[in-house]
Design brief:
There is one protein chain. By secondary structure, this protein is of the alpha+beta class. It is built from 4 helices and 7 strands. It is globular and about 65 Å long. The two termini are 33 Å apart.
């Protein structure tokens, strides 16, 4: 165990809720669908605007749509067509935590492709101190 890492509830909660935006991005990761996991050999990736997702937990389970906003301050994402009506008749976006969705389609650009290449578990097999002596 590392002596620099705490398991204190108080300190862990403080670190979580005062985390800077760069750390919140990593906290707000979502797992990929089975098809995407097979394709990229990556289990999860930080979510971003433009990804297609499906809600897998909660009252909105089964609903699909494109991510319209990543609200890092509140640790939620907003999905298109996922809205509810307020008492006064106004519609508001429903916040969903990224851990409760699976990504069904990625919005790819060169940075995202680099992340997938870096996290690819097949390419990591050759890494390490010792090579196989087969």
């Amino acid at each position: 165990f590392s002596p620099n890492v705490t398991s204190s509830r108080r300190k862990c909660r403080k670190a979580h809720f005062t985390a800077p935006s760069s750390v919140r991005r990593v906290i707000m990761s979502a797992s990929l669908s089975k098809a995407l996991q097979k394709e990229y050999n990556v289990r999860s990736i930080p979510i971003r605007q433009g990804d297609d997702v499906e809600v897998v937990r909660g009252a909105y389970k089964g609903k699909e749509g494109k991510v319209t906003t990543c609200y890092r301050k509140k640790f939620v994402i907003h999905i298109e067509r996922l809205q509810r009506e307020k008492a006064n008749g106004a519609t508001v976006n429903v916040g969903i935590h990224p851990s409760k969705v699976v990504i069904t389609a990625l919005k790819l650009d060169k940075d995202r492709k680099a992340i997938l290449a870096r996290k690819n578990r097949d390419s990591a097999k050759g890494k390490g101190k010792y090579a196989d002596l087969d």
